[in-house]
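Give me structure tokens for this 281-residue protein.
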Amino acid sequence: MPVDVSIYTAPKVDCHCHVLDPEGFAYAADVAYSPMGQETGSAEYFSHVLGAYGVRHALLVGPNSGYGTDNRCLMSAIAGSQGRFKGIAVVPNDASALYLQELKAQGIVGVAFNIALHGLDYYRTAAPLLARLAALGMFVQVQVEAIQLQTLTPLLLDSGAQLLVDHCGRPDVARGVSGEGFAALLRLADSRRATVKLSGFAKFSAQEFPFPDTRSFTDALLQAFGADHCVWASDWPFLKAPRRLDYGPLLQLFAQTVPDAQDRHKILWSTPARLFGFGQD
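Here you go.
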């Protein structure tokens, strides 16, 4: 894969990454998975990673692993970042409007719905939470896999909330771009309220890096959503990754995936800056 050095100096926002610091913020006792070793990384260390690759801002996602609905580590990272970080929190389905307002005032722009982890039934009573997010102008970020989005779509569209879809919708590559779940994602483009993260290839690819079986999906997403509704993300520090991943090669893969300079600038910078309120510095 040819190296494009311009990708390192281009302004960038990483739109899906985690801070896991079990030494500073102990994990919750009841979580299903506790990341350790190379799966962890403090806010300070992640800032060094971003600096090494010229990434100006990041959208931190509260991980279900380790912390569940405990957002202390996330909020500490945002508070100490001097505007470099904003966040997606994990909250219980009965989170009040007041609690959501407090989170928003501290740099939280949305709430994560991890359907791929919890299943659809867990969120069947979440319509009131979605309505509160919509009223506050916050995002609902959904992580689905295979055909889950097909069932979830009516609930999301009826909510009126801004939608953020993780990891290309984690499609079933065996079914191709016409598979039911991915087709449901493509139809969300018509709402003009949905944005897709071009990320997480290792979560759904059946091949090794550079994940050639994902290209038809990213091409379809770019065509349907356009660069004004696509963003890039690393998924650092690569929780439960089935194979070795590194930040630099993932940036190079993006450069190959989106060769058009104008589209690349939008996806890496102007679109996330607009959506999440990062300054145009």
